Every structure is written in C-alpha cells, then in structure tokens.
Amino acid sequence: MAAHFGRRLRKGAATTAVAAAAVAALSASQAPDVTADDQGRQTSSDATSSPEEAADGGSATGNSPYYTDLPPLNSPNPSPSTGTGRTTPGAAEAGIPATVLDAYKKAEAALREKKPGCNLPWQLLAAIGKVESGQARGGRVSADGTTLSPILGPQLDGNGFATIKDTDNGAYDGNSTYDHAVGPMQFIPSTWEWAGRDGNGDGREDPNNIYDAALAAGHYLCRFDWDLSDQRDLDKAILSYNNSTEYLNTVLSWLEYYRKGSHEVPDGTGTLPEDRSDDNTVRPSPSTPGTSSPKPGPKPGKPAGSSPGPKPTEPGPKPTEPGSPSTPPPPTTTPTPTDTVDHLEDAGTARLTAMAGDAFTKRISTRAETDAGKAVAKVRIRFTIVGDTDTTFTGGESVATVVTNSTGVAVAPALQAGEQTGAFAVRATVVGRTIPGVAYNATVTERAADTLVRTSDKALTCTPGGEFAEPVEVRATYDGAAADKVAATATLVKSADDPTANDKGPYFKDADGKAIRTLSGLKTDANGLLKLPRLYADDTTGTFLLRVTTAGGATLTVELTVAEAETTSPSPSPSPSETSGA
C-alpha cells in the first residue's frame, strides 16, 4: 500500500490508544448496529448483522474495509503558519485537498436546499471520506473532481467480507463475478445505481468523481427523514453507511476533529492513512538493544478476530516466505438465503392508486420463493420506482430495500403520491441476483372534491351597474375531509340546463378591468376553501346563476339577483275632516 500512497502518517501506539479512549467518550455508549425494518427504515438493533444480511440495503459500502487511523489528540487550530515553514502540531491532518473540500461544501449546500431538515454538515462527509479513501488518496483528483486512478475496495466474495455477487456486469468495478466498493466514497455498484448523483453538472453520475460521490453520500445519509443534528439519527445514518460500531466511532472522531478546525491544502498533498480494518499485521514495539521486545499484541484500532483480506491498492498477493505453508484451499462457502431464491411472486398486492398529494392506502408485498415454491426468509428485496413520476416512498426516496420475513414476504414502505398525475411502476428485485423481478403498476389521479357548499347563507343581491356586497366563498370536501389544491372553474351560466357562459348579467373583471364570465385555473386552499373575486352587475335585471365545478365532479350552483333598489312611497296626508276633531 505504501507504494501507492507515497507516504504514511506515523503514529505511536500510545497516542493511538489514548485517541481510542477519546472516541469512546465521544460515543457515550456502544451504538447499536442498523438493520431494516418492514417499513424499509433503518432501525437500531443490538445484534450485529452477518455479512450477508448487512451487505447492501443497510450499507452503502457493502461493509467493505475502511481506514481506522484516528485523528491527533491536539486541536487542529490554528492552521499552518504562512511563510514560517512551521506547521502547528496536528494541523497536517486537518488539511483537506482543495477540490475534495469544495465537493463536500457544495454537497452540504445542495442538501441544505433539497432536504433542510437533515442538517447535513460537510464535516461528516469529510469524516467519511477520510476513513473510506483518505480523502481520495490525499486529493489525487483532476480539476473536475475525478480520481486520477480508480479507487476499488477488495472483491466482495465472502473471503473475510460480505458476499455480493456482480450487479453491474463490471461496469463500475471491472469485475463481472463479484462487486467491489468504488470511488472516493466507496459505494458498491448496486447502491450507486439508485443513490448516484451528478454533483459537478457534467450530465454523468460517476462514483469516481468526488463531486458526484459526495452529493450521493449526502443524499444517502439524509434518507428516511433523519435529522443529523440529533445524535441518534446521526448514529443511524453513519451505521447505515458501514454497519460497524468501530466504524461509527472512527467517523465520529474525525467529525469532531474537523468541526474544531480544518483548512485547504493543494490537491495531491493531503496526508494519507495507513491502518485498515482488514489488516491485522502485528508490528513489534521498538526495544532497547540487549533487551527482549515485548510480545506483540493486536494492533490498536483493529477489531479483534477480523479476517484479513486483500488491500484494494496492492497489485497482487505477497510472495510466500521460505518455509511457510502452501496456499490454503479456498474456504468452503455456505449458500446464503439469497442464493436459494428462484423467483419472486406478488404476495396479494391490491390495486395501487392514490390522489395527488395523498399517501397510497395499499402497500406492495412481494414473496421470495425457491424453485419448489418454498418461502425464503432474510432476503433483501429492492423496490424501485420507475417511470415519469414524482411519487416517492415514505422518506422521500425512490428506492427502498426490505428484508423478507419468516414467510418470505417483504412489504415495501408506503408510497407517497406527488403532484404529477399518471401511471408509473414499482419494480421488486432480489439484491445481488439477476433473476426476473416483479413489476407493480400504480396510478396517481388528480386531486378531487365530491362536495361543494357555500360558507355563508346570505342572499347575493346587487343593483344594476353596481357591485355585489358579498364575495362568493365555497368549501370543497372529499369523503368528508377538506379537499385542498383541487382545481375549480366558476362560470356564470345561461340557465340550469345550459352550462354555456352567459353574455349578460353579473360578471367578473380580468386584469384589465374587462368583463369576463368564466374563471378557470382556480384552486382550493389548504383548508379546501375557494374565495371568488368580486362580482359586478351590468344594467340587466333578473335572476342569474353562478356555477362552480371541481375535479372529481363536485358542483354548486349559486343564485344571484340584480334588481332596482326599492323606493318608499310617502304616506297620504290626512283630510281636513280627520284633523278637525269633528
């Protein structure tokens, strides 16, 4: 690895041990691992998932190896002194390559606009970028943010890692048998397929580009309506990126470090980590000549009992030392539940339809089965919304991954209709397999009302050439509830049987003050109310009709009266005989 990284950050074992204690204090307690519940959300669990269960769906990286180096204990502030040639102790680690830092900050700004409730700090992206790739190998990126050489994690073949069979035909990682984590933020191809974003505006979603990868990581961490200013949600989000408590603690330590201070350094000059979670190499401590060295122990910062695996940057296996045993045979792998799935079946999903803006009342259910039709539990099913639609799953994402239960059934999260009407589909597939999926058709209809009533019972009257004192206001409901944002039209019709617009009588005014007798493009407010503009009368007297109609068929006809003002006749004068008292 040293040949590829050029240089390493050296730390003493004592410093690392003390830093590890500081990390424990940051975390307060061992945060639970993360699994998916039947809603497709990440939830806490005290049990650690197996590699197969944790891979994908609950991990952006497939739980690939990561760098376990901890930040220095001294504060990263102040920044290096300019022109003195001296660097404040610890400040080198606070330096983030310029292009990489810019990508993190642009991603934070984009998420602040798209998902303000997430409260994503760019320092979190920097912390994850540090432990995943050493900030894109110290900032070895081009001007547009693309890594100068690919950054690949090890083959996820079950040899010390999760088993994730090829999902991209080698398009991202060059391997058509197994997947690798790819790029500076180490996304596995199947996750990138739905989480990928175009962060630099070049029209491509490239996991090897730090702008694209940082924006994708931000969206990934902000799914499920998590608020990253809340420690519990922050823990869940980090664990969903890599399902390891040690990973959580390492990221939290770098997050805290970068929050205390950081600065920009030229691309390609960032410090590089050396310790990885899959490296159990034991280095003896220095000893005084003539004295025996202490017995080597596990390296600080490494998970006890973890299986070493190939490093992503090594060209090949190390040569066998003389006298060492021959290469052991490959480990025998036990078929995972995913391997036994032959097909997916619909598990009784009802017709999927909802009004724009509403939640779908029915949910998609899919059953994983063997060739013999037996249920397969603990299989990850990915539900993907496809088609021209703004409908999402609860939480705002277009993809959700759910684990099948003991009956082999996975229930997708509820669908939330957007404002775009029309048909779309939801496709269910098995994560890590290429067997045919199941497509579910869904439809979003326009917002509608089934009832319209006036909010006042006052008579609507006016004198010729005058203005109606009372505006017309109506309330729209659907199934008894307020019907908001429902399209409506108001027309002054010729008669109850003739819905065409009248050419005389009451009228509205347009922006130029001209008389109009049809108003279209109206919408009810959030409470289902619709208040029409003022009505005016020409010189025609009589009774006229105003008809209001809405999407969904609700209709209300309002009566308008135009009449001359009543005049009071004077009382007749009394006759002389009536006043004489005779």
Domain count: 3
Q: Approximately what portion of the residues adopt beta-strand conformation?
A: 15-25%
Any idea what the radius of gyration is? Answer: 35 Å
Helix amount:
10-25%
**End-to-end Cα distance:** 134 Å
Q: Number of DSSP strands?
A: 26
Q: Give the CA-based shape.
A: elongated
Unreliable spans: 1-57, 79-87, 281-327
Mean pLDDT: 80
Structural class: alpha+beta
| Main β-sheet description | 6 strands, mixed
The number of helical runs is 12
Can you walk me through this structure?
- This protein has 582 residues and is α+β, with helices and mostly antiparallel strands.
- The chain folds into three domains: 2-79 and 91-265, no CATH class; 337-445, Immunoglobulin-like (Sandwich); 451-562, Macroglobulin (MG2) domain (Immunoglobulin-like), CATH 2.60.40.
- 20% of the residues lie in helices and 21% in strands.
- The chain is built from twelve helices and 26 strands.
- The strands form eight sheets. Strands 16, 19, 20, 23, 25 and 26 form a six-stranded mixed β-sheet that branches. A five-stranded mixed β-sheet has the order 6-14-13-8-10, with no helix packed on it.
- Helix 2 (13-27) crosses helix 10 (245-260), helix 5 packs parallel to helix 8 and helix 6 crosses helix 10 (245-260).
- The radius of gyration is 35 Å and the shape is elongated.
- The termini are far apart.
- Mean pLDDT is 80; it is low at 1-57, 79-87 and 281-327.
